[in-house]
Amino acid sequence: MSALRAGLIGLGMMGRHHARVLGSLEGVELVAVADPGGDVHGVAGGRPVESAVDALLHHGLDYCVVAVPTMHHEEIALRLADAGVHALVEKPLAQDVASSERITEAFETRGLVGAVGHIERYNPALQQARSRIEAGELGTVFQVVTRRQGPFPARIADVGVIKDLGTHDIDLTTWVTQQEYTAVAARTANRSGREHEDMVSVVGQLSGGAITNHLVNWLTPYKERTTVVTGEKGSFIADTLSADLTFHANGNVRQDWEAVSRFRGVSEGDMVRYAIAKPEPLRTEHEAFRDALLGRGADIVTMRAGLRTVRVAEAVLESARSGATVSLDDA
Q1: Angstrom distance (rounded) from CA 217 to CA 150
Q2: Which of 73, 115, 210, 214 is the most exposed place for a label (fewest CB within 10 A)?
Q3: DSSP state of 2
Q4: 115 and 125, same domain (yes or no)
Q5: Domain co-membership, 166 together with 156
Q6: What contacts 24+ positions apart, CB below 8 Å, involve 271-279?
Q7: 98-107, pLDDT tens digit by residue?
Q8: Based on the structure, what is the number of domains in the chain?
Q9: Residue pair 63/86 in contact by the 8 Å Cβ criterion
């Protein structure tokens, strides 16, 4: 069977990594790339470098990866849909709900495979956590807490920390728990003088009864990527920087001391750090999209799921503006 013909538009920070993976992905041939600023990182590997999506389409693509700034996602995605080209669009799907809806509808009505690059779903620690939660190892999920903090990335100029980083936590929370957001309340801050927010604290309610808390900012002088999922049997702690997953079990040691035995909460139990395989998340994401194109039933982040994430992100922004809890009862 001939290889799938892939294109890539956007050769910046993420685009260069997409180029590396696409250039070595089994069953895929990266035939051309595009960026109006040229190949500044030298990742084309001798392939044609075009300046725009229309020129890229002349290379007869089966699918295209879109790694341009968020403000350009709609224009490029709609052009790909019109040309009948499947697409993997970097997260977030688009800059707002209306644009995300138009992209989603364009791909769905044409029967095209469209996905969003929420790469955290492919982190080995979170994939293990989801599998174990689905198997009942945590029991009922009570709470999800995420911390995604670090220095300001100078390359981001068109969205704030909520849509750039916070969408990771929104997507991974719904995916790991298999619950949707029903309400959010948030507060933001702008400490760096930029147009968009650079710090947010979010409290959320999920459809299955779990509650969430997300701390996200660009103002911390170290990187932290931590997800803690607490349930009736204990807590999973996923560090997605190291792809480590740890389980802290609820203690079940009998307490004879009367004052302690009357306590109805939980106590510390065994701690397990799992030994898990750690494939590169970006490669796993590309493999899943390739397999989806080949009809192999791969787990991709659909554009419909990406639309829901943008809807939650906008509810977070609305809550921060209004100071009120925002309902997502139809989301």
Answers
A1: 7
A2: 210
A3: P
A4: no
A5: yes
A6: 271/246, 271/247, 272/246, 272/247, 273/244, 273/245, 273/246, 274/128, 274/244, 274/245, 274/246, 274/247, 276/124, 276/125, 276/128, 276/243, 276/245, 277/124, 278/124, 278/243, 279/124
A7: 999 999 999 9
A8: 2
A9: yes
96 and 168 together in one domain: no
Over the stretch 245-278, which tens digit does the pLDDT of each residue have? 999 999 875 555 555 555 456 777 889 999 999 9
**What SS3 string covers 170-208?**
HHHHHHHHCCCEEEEEEEEECCCCCCCCCEEEEEEEECC
* pLDDT reported for residue 269: 81
Which residues, 6+ apart, have CB-to-CB distance to 85 below 8 Å? 7, 57, 61, 62, 63, 64, 112
d(CA 95, CA 78): 14
Percentage of residues of the chain with pLDDT beyond 70: 94
**189 and 113 co-located in one domain:** no
**182 is in which domain, residue-wise?**
121-279+310-327
So what's the pLDDT on residue 331? 42
Provide the b/e sequence for 7-32 (b: ≥16 CB within 10 Å). bbbbbbebbbbbbbbbbebeebebbb
- Residues in the chain, total: 331
